[in-house]
Amino acid sequence: MRDQKSNPARVARLARGAGLMALMLATTSVQAETIGGALTKAYLNNPDINAQRAAVRQTDETLPYYNAGYLPKVSAQANAGVASTYYQDAGAGLTSANQTVLPRGYGVTVNQNIWDGNATYNSIRQAESNVLVQRETLRYTEEATLLNALTYYMNVMRDTATLDLNRSNVEVLKEQLRQTRDRFNVGEVTRTDVAQAEAALAQAQSQYLVAQSTLQASIASYRQVIGDPPANLAPVTPVTKLLPTSLPSAIAISEVENPQITLALHNVDVALLGVKINESALYPQVGLQASLTKSFDVQSLPGGSKTLNGTIVGQVTIPIYDGGKSFASIRQAKENVTVKELTADSRRDQVRQTVVASWGQNQNAVGVLRAARAQVAAAEV
Q: How far is CA 270 from CA 117, 256, 337, in A?
């Protein structure tokens, strides 16, 4: 037999085949979607996250809005017009005159808040707490979205494998039905055996259609969260090393870092500051107003007159009675504090329940996976 290595044509074909295979593998690795890439797409492009980012930016603008209460308010005004006066003197001799002037002027007014019962101070603090609320809401939205992205990523992989398994099962049962019919034709089996093979195939085809619709639903969910349809998903490495070491440790971490709890606590701060803002209506309001006005052709003065007026006025407003409106607002704000505190307690209990349930599901999943692997190994034997 001639040595195959000495055949140049064969060597060339093998080289071309190896190069083509390497190119296919490289293309597959480039086009493969990893879990990191899918989560990055969801984090950057998901509309729920982007909408919450916009809500955070919107809430950030409340800080300069309320901070303006400390700054002076400056306004300018100007006026111009025509004034005509006709008068008649019936004394020594009947005389009359008509005077027409063009009064005009301009000025500047400055209003400065001195003290408003700490309403501005507490409004700024409340705005800061609202910013923290929106940031925690954004963090919760990000976590929920990324969890959904990971879940749908794994669902697509699972449902794809299930569909392939059902497709293979249908092909196997078709072959078994063909063999059973052949054996029936030669009298080795009965009609009942053929009917049982037909029923098994029909059931497998039904399972295949169910698996197909389930995969389509998972693909739609994947597309909704991540933004692109799934294509050639790469396997995922388990992250069990990142889990807490024990259930008490997981509960302790959730009570400090879970965004639902921190969000609820910031809402309590917002409600407490709302009480102080409403209480400011019971305190005096102190302000300062300064104005400078220049006028020309004042009607009561001789022609060509000019005036320059400057004033500085301090104002103090003391509330005496408003029909009980302020006290009602204060009581309402205090009840809102109670609502927010109870909501925070409820969120803490819900998070604890979720952590305990998820911990148990994870532990059970490890056992189920171990048993499933043993079952597969036994089935292969």
A: 18, 19, 8
